[in-house]
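ping. complex inputs:
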Amino acid sequence: MILSGTVVVNSDKIIDDGAVVVDDDTITTVGKRNNIIDKFPSHDETQSDILMPGMVGSHIHSVQSLGRGISDDSELLDWLFEHVLPMEAALDAEQMEAAAKLGYLELIETGTTTAIDHLSVAHAERAFEAAGEMGIRGIFGKVLMDRRAPDGLIEETQAGLNETEELIQKYHGSFDDRIRYAVTPRFAVSCTEECLRGARALADKYDGVRIHTHASENQDEVETVEDDTGQRNIHWLDEVGLTGEDVVLAHCVWTDESERTILEETGTHVTHCPSSNMKLASGIAPIVDYLDRGINVALGNDGPPCNNTLDPFTEAKQAGILQKADQLDPTVTPKESILDMATVNGAKAAGFDTVGELKPGWKADIIGISTDNTQATPLNDILSYIVFAAHGENVEFTMVDGEVLMEDNTVTVVDAESIRQDARRAAESLDIKGTRSPTSS
Amino acid sequence: MILSGTVVVNSDKIIDDGAVVVDDDTITTVGKRNNIIDKFPSHDETQSDILMPGMVGSHIHSVQSLGRGISDDSELLDWLFEHVLPMEAALDAEQMEAAAKLGYLELIETGTTTAIDHLSVAHAERAFEAAGEMGIRGIFGKVLMDRRAPDGLIEETQAGLNETEELIQKYHGSFDDRIRYAVTPRFAVSCTEECLRGARALADKYDGVRIHTHASENQDEVETVEDDTGQRNIHWLDEVGLTGEDVVLAHCVWTDESERTILEETGTHVTHCPSSNMKLASGIAPIVDYLDRGINVALGNDGPPCNNTLDPFTEAKQAGILQKADQLDPTVTPKESILDMATVNGAKAAGFDTVGELKPGWKADIIGISTDNTQATPLNDILSYIVFAAHGENVEFTMVDGEVLMEDNTVTVVDAESIRQDARRAAESLDIKGTRSPTSS
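pong. complex structure:
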């Protein structure tokens, strides 16, 4: 297949009138369309205004999708323990599948091709199967919580680790290695030392398995960990093995100098979730300092109850402008760095070494976005449109691993309307409601 | 005409299975559809998923639309004097019209029905005519700059005031009183005392004419005014008459206690432009304090070179979440208050007393938004969807003053594609480019 359009190879290189040749799951040729088109007469050609690497959602909660908008205007720990965890605990296997599919549908529609996805304690296999079938790439993990968790989510430590190992054996490297495993302790507050060390042991035992957890999102969380362990959170995580090049820490809003040094020296990946941090009043993460230190910073939308969408374009804009306001310096997060965070940095965090740029030999994870709209007019600057003006609605084409998941704005790999209907039904049966539900009058 | 759907009357009242009856330019009845539909057999019915008051863009620069994305990652005064003002100065009458129409097209498409629009020094009549023809409501003003302005924008003081008065006489109250005048000095930095006092005199002379200017957006601006006048900016504006219930001050990021007291005591309106303030590294405006003081705070997208869209939904979300992060308190800007800022507060700032809510006797400025999309699924909370998840792309119907401007996602009042084409041509002829223009490779 040949994809043609303005090709954004990465944040450094844009090819006008370009083309990308895809064979099987791989990009084989990238260049000027004129130099390519005649050499591949048997390849079908598909056109988009802009072709770019698929976005990487480096910290999401697909299975929270049924709780979109259920707890606005509330603070992280209340939001989590009063609203979101009870919802997660209530989901049966069918509802979990409905939630995960809704999340993956939104990713496909809005241009995310790789996810680092924090599932729930139960029914993780439904999400793995859904992600596999729906064609997205990612690292996924059942959540581990062995203390401070509501009924229905708390597990005996070894039971959670055992189930994790079974899921690793079943799904890590599955679906042509699109689907990999991330051992996923929720956060230090809800995990004992045994649980956290067990997570590290599993990641060490299985090649390529990563660790994904929340860290230092909120001041109360940091204080709780300090009360528990006598240490700052990142020090504690480092002591029990939850730092390193195979570890993705979401948020890292509240870190001190010594903790940042640990992140830097261990090569730990940080996922920045600016909209979630803002909406939950968690704070503004010190991303500019992380970037200055060479820490790999990726981007994530977090979940629909806290963002309230998985649209990676609005998150890129947020990351682009929030640090400027916080630092009173517009140069700290140039749009090129934001595109990196939203694409190749996320792939690096997830451990996919040939994902996140459109280069020969790299995986064919490609999205096409339209410029036939007012927000792209005039199109004075391609990267500016991508980072500051485009929305997920402008994505018209999504390909992962060489497979077309959406074309001409229509999801081809599943029936989008039936996924939305299943999600509505599941939310109704669970009686999920926000404060201003549709029937209020 | 009857419009039916879930009716968001205002932030307090939502009517499920509701309907709004529009006669001429006015809403005559609002209620349950079942109680309404049989009483108006001769009225056509149009359905939307959600009907709500049109958004009010309370500080925009329609005529900067050709400069979308031309100066990303730069600071306000550089951005203004190096990039945006030279572009404004270069626009001839045709190009100014193309720019304004592009801006108004984006407003119509994304659900803004009333604008407080800062034009440019020259060719303001092209924007007035365009706004009048295209059907939007608003207060508009030719810009006054009689010092510290580039060639092509600087005017002799009295010449600018004279032209302002001619425009007031021609356009204030025109197009069935949809179009009104706001005397528009750019900001204190670029206006002499004579100019500012002249602006006040004109507003006093003509009933209903307002004043719209920028104030205390940036620290360098505040220092410049202090160097010029020996006073903090809001004190200076107050001294020369640019505070009061007929004054709209955009931004007000950098104000001290005494200045806030002036804003409060004079009933001056403040327009919050969070994304612009973030992108230009201006800072985070003390909106929570303004709200606590009872100051009327409205919302604005500012201009396409600094936002980079006029989508009022993304701006509402930004306003909703930025203050939470800044104050570390998620309750400071509840979604109800954000909807007020985006609608009725803006109408109040603009001086349209019966705009911004869907109530009998109020103007028929109504938008319809779709919930048939993944980001609205499940629809657990109507206001949450509007404030935190919807984008301008979800607007499917736009009515101003009882006239349908867009229906079924298609702008009916003008040919959208020809406006976009004219804008592209104008940008090309001006050689407007960003740093990563479409032809970079």
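Chain A has a mean pLDDT of 96.
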